[in-house]
């Protein structure tokens, strides 16, 4: 990531708002961007999505971008499409934008957000050197590779990557290096068993569909395959978890054979990949809704 010293001598681009010009340059580098209001806040949801009226599916389930015409759903609005960035639907947001944000996970990046001097001192002693971007209170350390975002992994330390956005603060200094295992480990703060209690999901109870489980082996094999699918997911973990939940419910959810024990196994597999309990519950609920359960 290097900052442009000048934009191309394009009279149309020269007339654009400065934040939009920066966003277009970042988009050319393959970094998904979105406008922020004053206070580092994303543009508010469109009327169709206000108060989660849309079910928050673009935000909760997709890796982005949001499909709304104007910037909507925070990080999921981030895009590299210049036609979208310069569209009339986005024009007002760019005129009022207080800053540009980017979705690091969408660019296969992870940002370790160090919010104070103590956090910066810890990083300099503990983390491999990489690109460093000064911020108003600390530093952003940018690594190559994506992971699940996680806040407050240490005092003054947040991890921003998938399903998150970061304010663009400039090019920074130093080369970007590979995401170290130490940073990935920071997001695993509890043993999966402790994060599973209490289990607050609903297991379908409507029997009546034809049961294909001629023996317990059929269901056991299906749950084991689902666990393996989650464990083998390499990216877009939340989307992968949702798709596995959807597949399990579509095959096993209508005959009354699925138990809380089976669901707990699926949640454990998702937790082992770094998925939060809240996101697991949301993915399960959305999968049931999608199937009319």
List keywords for this structure.
293 residues; 38% helix; disordered N terminus; globular; alpha+beta; six-stranded mixed sheet; four-stranded antiparallel sheet; 12 helices
Short note summarizing the structure:
The protein is α+β, with helices and mostly antiparallel strands and 293 residues long. The chain has helices at residues 11-14, 18-28, 57-60, 82-85, 88-96, 117-126, 181-186, 192-195, 216-231, 237-252, 260-272, 277-290; strands at 33-37, 41-42, 99-102, 109-114, 131-134, 139-144, 150-154, 157-160, 166-167, 177-178. α9 (216-231) packs antiparallel against α10 (237-252).
Unreliable residue runs: 2-9, 190-199
Integer-rounded radius of gyration: 21 Å
Oligomer: single chain
Termini separation (Å)?
46 Å
Arithmetic mean of pLDDT: 81
Describe the protein.
With 293 residues, this protein is an alpha+beta fold. Helix content is 38%, strand content 14%. The protein has twelve helices and ten strands. Strands 4, 5, 6, 7, 8 and 10 form a six-stranded mixed β-sheet that branches. The radius of gyration is 21 Å and the shape is globular. The model is unreliable at 2-9 and 190-199 (pLDDT under 50).
């Amino acid at each position: 990531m290097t900052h442009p010293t000048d934009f191309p001598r394009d009279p149309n681009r020269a007339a654009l708002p400065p934040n939009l010009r920066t966003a277009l340059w970042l988009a050319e580098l393959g970094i998904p961007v979105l406008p922020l209001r004053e206070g580092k806040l994303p543009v508010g949801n469109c009327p169709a999505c206000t108060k989660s009226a849309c079910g928050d599916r673009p935000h909760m389930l997709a890796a982005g971008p949001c499909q709304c015409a104007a910037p909507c759903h925070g990080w999921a609005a981030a895009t590299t499409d210049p036609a979208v960035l310069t569209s009339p639907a986005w024009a007002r947001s760019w005129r009022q934008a207080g800053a540009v944000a980017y979705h690091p996970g969408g660019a296969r990046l992870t940002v370790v957000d160090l919010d104070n001097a103590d956090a910066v001192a810890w990083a300099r002693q503990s983390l491999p050197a990489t690109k460093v971007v000064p911020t108003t209170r600390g530093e952003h350390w940018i690594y190559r590779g994506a992971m699940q975002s996680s806040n407050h992994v240490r005092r003054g330390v947040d991890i921003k990557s998938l399903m998150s956005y970061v304010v663009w603060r400039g090019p920074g200094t130093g080369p970007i290096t590979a995401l170290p295992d130490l940073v990935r480990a920071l997001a695993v703060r509890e043993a999966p068993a402790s994060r599973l209690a209490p289990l607050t999901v609903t297991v379908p109870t409507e029997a009546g569909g034809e049961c294909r489980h001629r023996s317990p082996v059929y269901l056991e094999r299906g749950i084991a395959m689902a666990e393996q699918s989650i464990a083998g997911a390499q990216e877009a973990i939340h989307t992968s978890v949702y798709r596995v939940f959807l597949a399990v419910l579509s095959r096993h959810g209508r005959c009354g054979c699925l138990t809380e024990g089976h669901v707990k196994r699926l949640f454990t597999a998702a937790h082992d990949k770094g998925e939060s309990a809240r996101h697991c519950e949301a993915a399960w609920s959305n999968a049931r809704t999608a199937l009319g359960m």
